[in-house]
């Protein structure tokens, strides 16, 4: 298996600790994701990625003979439901740590459950900037294996303004915590260049058309369009742009890459639209090819809902396993926090090699250099720039 040699080696090094572990007692891992509803495509990718990692780890003995056990809850992409299942896992089920959240609004509603109870939360999916800035990292028990939107905004504005020399930028965003954060982050990056959006359009989740908002952006002479929302609404935006036959460059954060967008909008409407990505499927990277083969065997899916969500949740499980080895099985929030902030050796993941992913002042595992520009071409996500595709086999590590 993909991780067999790594885990076997780690078990050998730590064999002397086996008597300290309660052999056979599971390490209980909470998992929270939207498994039903409009966000289910990437929520289930989180689930399958985590399940695959747990399966591989348990096949080689788990943590010092203790199997990992996922305790899964569906937040349905509803903030109050996310809060309810968070309290269930932390206060009732008393899981050892939790991996979870795809939707920023859901995560923000629940963060204090983990923080107040000193319970380690590893976020593999939600990218809202506020998720890891609500609490100062020195005191926070919230970590993330996904690029925060402040980095996505920095990357996108640099691509639009600095590289392409486009200055008239319009923003469309939903009325959720995710959309609010996206408008702020893009606007802040534009302000650094003495610019402001020429138009900001807002809409509710569930909208079926954004033609009027597109027309308003077009009337404002927008040279580039940035859309901050999740899968179904990205599809509505893409279809509306196609309906108007408006060929303005279309940029978005990662939700544009979801399977649901392709299914709802179709390849023709999506052609040429661009999004931020931490991982893009390519044959040059053996580890990613192996991961996808294992993922499809496990999930039985014909097409992955979100490669980023699956790979980041898979890596998150292994990062937490590494932390467990450092704490010698201590699952207290303080012990796990200290271990994550002071990794004793690099971990070779699917998305990247994590050298020092976290510190006492930074709980986000990504830096802006680790983001790629992806593009929809003929119904597939590819590297926008050919030179990026050539360099894809080289690991991009986090910069200080």
Descriptive overview:
With 400 residues, this protein is α/β, with parallel strands linked by helices. The chain has two domains: 4-147 and 283-366, Response regulator (Rossmann fold, 3-Layer(aba) Sandwich); 150-277 and 372-390, Rossmann fold, CATH 3.40.50.2300. It has 14 helices and 14 strands. Helix 2 crosses helix 11 (286-299) and helix 8 (231-244) packs parallel to helix 9 (259-265). The two termini are 32 Å apart.
List the helices and strands and how they pair.
Elements lengths: L3 H10 L13 E7 L6 H20 L8 E7 L4 H15 L3 E4 L3 H13 L4 E3 L18 E3 L4 H15 L5 E6 L2 H15 L7 E5 L7 H9 L4 E5 L2 H14 L5 E3 L6 H7 L1 H4 L3 E4 L8 H14 L7 H21 L5 H9 L5 E2 L4 E2 L17 E6 L2 E4 L2 H5 L10
Parallel strand pairs: 1-2, 1-3, 3-4, 4-5, 6-7, 6-8, 8-9, 9-10
Antiparallel strand pairs: 10-13, 11-12, 13-14
Helix pairs in contact: 2-11, 2-12, 3-4, 5-6, 8-9, 12-13
List keywords for this structure.
400 residues; Rossmann fold; 7-stranded mixed β-sheet; alpha/beta
